[in-house]
Design a protein that fits this description.
Length: 507
Amino acid sequence: MDVEYPVAEMSDDVALTTAENTAVAGATGRSLIGDYVTLVVCVHVVFCAACWLVQTGFSSGSGLAVATAGWVIARLCLRDRPAIAAVPVTALLLGAVSMTQVVASTAIPVFFSSPVLAGLLVLLLLMDARTIFERLVTADAQHREMVRQALFRYGLRGVLYGIALILAVNALAIPLFEEWQFRSTPAPTSPLGLRDRLTLEQNIMFRLFQGLSALFFFTIGACVGSFLNVVIYRLPLRVSVLVKPSYCPGCEELIEGSDNIPLIGWLRLKGQCRNCSIEISSRYPSVELLIGSCFLILYFVELISGGQNLPERTPNAYNGVLWVLFYTKWDLVGLYLYHCFVLCTLFSWAMIRRDGNRVPAVSILIILFLVVLAPVVIPLLHPLPATTALSGTSAILKPLATSGAGILAGFGSASVLWVLCRTSASRNLPHDPASWILMGAALGWQAVICVLAFLVVWALLEGLLNEMSGVIPTSEANQKINWLALPAVAFVSHCVWRPVVHFFLEA
């Protein structure tokens, strides 16, 4: 945690303006279109629950569908507690995603299937996230101070207790439930099933290692987020991000190692420097939590899944922590690290521009050189070539051609967005050429087209969220959100890269 962000003080005039914006936004309410959209969604989830009850009876799937329908209706009608509502929505979302494979053989219509329910829950999460962000941006100093004090009082214990609870549920509750389920059902007649079954002790140890592995990758991501905080601040100032250690800009004392622990250090210090008590920006733990979560999600989606999100690459038949990490699949590890590097670079560039600064051209050229050079050295880093005609070309020409086609596609997409920003009311679309070129060079032209399509969907969804939530975003909040739209959409597109590419190929 590098205490180098200047503390932005809010004047009385600014506080009054933001308070007035909050009052206007809260008093606006939903429009007529938003009311009808809410009504249609409520009717749809009622039919979803009814369809699940008819097709599957009183099962776990129908129970989850009924719970999802009830919560969607309650959430759309009662919109006052978005932060609290995000917890059950996330739990229901995980349950809906876990049902996807179970219900594949049932006769559930596609419009009522678990992916549709999961999509509705994602819509609620986006609506809540947008509302929370808007309230944080427009909150006055008193409300921000109340949030900070609550974090300092309960945050550290919440983090430690939360980690212990997750590990305990994964390593104790689930193995005990599986053991009870095995003993209460008839024994399998297949010798192979009995041989592959883990004992209770083995299952506990294996799941404990799974949980610790996930915690390890989250911690690595949080450490990378802490480093990105330094990069975001120092890079525009052309200050070394490697040689000069972390220091406090108020007293210029070096930051102790124990105070640099991601998330925990900021909570332990209560958001203040240990020496001079200068306020530490809350951006530090926010970025650390965000990057750590991204590393953790990609750990599940790309690494231990055997590359289920990667197009044109046959997923590993033997996946999971044991077969990917113990018997290390280095190609998957390389792809995971390469894609994390690209996504983190996109995020850091977006944050620099969000602060009103420019990324030095030398840094952009160095990053682009490394991104183009890496697939030349390790060709497996390009799972999707520019065209099938390159399959018989040399190991050097193929990655260069793929990167070149991606660079052209990225520059073209940035140009289209730039024109749209100059000719329409939407002047905050992410049209930074360097970010689009980086994405094309690393992932190929197909990924650029997918991200561009997702951005169009996001622009439409943004208007729908505003209508359903009844909030008119301020220009400040709109600009800050749209600067981060490109790395956010790129991350989501990367997680569903394989099904999206196959959908377009089959279409």
